[in-house]
């Protein structure tokens, strides 16, 4: 097959994986409501569905012994997603329109939303930093501690078990800090069947995503980790980008922008696990360190820009552009620094 056909397979496979992930999203959102979790706290839990394509890709990469594709996807998606999702949420929030029923439910929040639109400001609940971003930075620090020092450099099985435990701690702090009264929910047979169909679509999509990436990087003549960073990772986040746009346009601004952190906390913990189980050496140590550093830097910039620069928590246009510039600096560091080899 030609590179163009494999490109088409990659696109179809990524969309199949995300279709499957969306079928899991509704059951998890119902559980969030049933357990009484806030939007921000719930994002830490619902992120399992959004990050499940990356989990599937990493599992398939480990199974097929091309773990560098999974490693590149894991790191690359965490770097590119936050700036692009915040940018999409900001643009969509300028166009957000609430119906009469939504306006009545929002009450004073609707007036605030209208005022923020006039001010070209996207308000973000401060919980997006305290409940998600700061613990997420702690997750990244643990990954660095487990994988960078020379005595235990790389991903090893014990690292995977440690990261699973770290995710449980992360989830617990988000749940207990954001607990409200739960709501009664009903589960239909059709919902369960769709969830099962979602799991199957997710598995098939993840498998062919890895197969397609293998063949594309072979045809182009680049390393598997570069293929994961700059081919699979951007493709894997496109459906998430469209979902963020839709959620932000509905007026759920914090949920739209904070989901990026919740999703990628899952990516750095649960999706880390299958790679660690098969033991992944770090073949290009400078590339790995730079990528891990930018994973932390992008999240730190997100937190800093929310807290400082405006009287309220959130983003004005200049802050969105400042966050985007972090990704541009990353590209310069990788390509002009000679690390993309």
Automatic annotation (TrEMBL):
<feature type="transmembrane region" description="Helical">
    <location>
        <begin position="320"/>
        <end position="340"/>
    </location>
</feature>
<feature type="transmembrane region" description="Helical">
    <location>
        <begin position="196"/>
        <end position="213"/>
    </location>
</feature>
<feature type="domain" description="Sodium/calcium exchanger membrane region">
    <location>
        <begin position="8"/>
        <end position="172"/>
    </location>
</feature>
<keyword id="KW-0472">Membrane</keyword>
<dbReference type="GO" id="GO:0005262">
    <property type="term" value="F:calcium channel activity"/>
</dbReference>
<dbReference type="InterPro" id="IPR044880">
    <property type="entry name" value="NCX_ion-bd_dom_sf"/>
</dbReference>
<feature type="transmembrane region" description="Helical">
    <location>
        <begin position="225"/>
        <end position="248"/>
    </location>
</feature>
<keyword id="KW-1133">Transmembrane helix</keyword>
<feature type="transmembrane region" description="Helical">
    <location>
        <begin position="158"/>
        <end position="176"/>
    </location>
</feature>
<dbReference type="InterPro" id="IPR004481">
    <property type="entry name" value="K/Na/Ca-exchanger"/>
</dbReference>
<dbReference type="GO" id="GO:0008273">
    <property type="term" value="F:calcium, potassium:sodium antiporter activity"/>
</dbReference>
<dbReference type="InterPro" id="IPR004837">
    <property type="entry name" value="NaCa_Exmemb"/>
</dbReference>
<feature type="transmembrane region" description="Helical">
    <location>
        <begin position="288"/>
        <end position="308"/>
    </location>
</feature>
<protein>
    <submittedName>
        <fullName>Sodium:calcium exchanger</fullName>
    </submittedName>
</protein>
<keyword id="KW-0812">Transmembrane</keyword>
<feature type="transmembrane region" description="Helical">
    <location>
        <begin position="260"/>
        <end position="282"/>
    </location>
</feature>
<feature type="domain" description="Sodium/calcium exchanger membrane region">
    <location>
        <begin position="196"/>
        <end position="335"/>
    </location>
</feature>
<dbReference type="GO" id="GO:0005886">
    <property type="term" value="C:plasma membrane"/>
</dbReference>
<dbReference type="GO" id="GO:0006874">
    <property type="term" value="P:intracellular calcium ion homeostasis"/>
</dbReference>
<feature type="transmembrane region" description="Helical">
    <location>
        <begin position="69"/>
        <end position="92"/>
    </location>
</feature>
<dbReference type="Pfam" id="PF01699">
    <property type="entry name" value="Na_Ca_ex"/>
</dbReference>
<feature type="transmembrane region" description="Helical">
    <location>
        <begin position="133"/>
        <end position="152"/>
    </location>
</feature>
